[in-house]
Give the backbone structure.
Amino acid sequence: GGIGIGGIGGIGDDDDDDDVAKATSDAEPWGDPRYLVLHGRRLLWWHGERDLDVGRSPGGQLLLQGHSGLTDPSPTDLAACSTSAAHLLLAIFGQTTDGAPLRWTVMLHSKEDKANLAAAVQAAVRTRLK
């Protein structure tokens, strides 16, 4: 099973790979909404719930293995969003499938969504492979 977070505000990352969409739209600094799923220790995103339903591959993934968990959003993340939305940011770090460090900052729709995702990530990290 997994936890689905429908329609998050967007994903920002500090990785230079192109496999994760960067949030660069002028109209919406956090990019297009994504559909996020935490499945075991894999955090996956799709462009929408329909992409997941029809079996498309995820647009990106972050593995909660090795050095992984939650951290504070970076000053760059905070500067890219309004002060009224900063409390909805959650920064998650882990690694790519190749073992390279990766950090995503996600903007959730509500404090409840943020708390639920944070709790799920923390639970996944506690059960990670050593």
About this structure: Confidence is low (pLDDT under 50) at residues 14-28. The helical segments are 49-53, 75-79, 111-126.
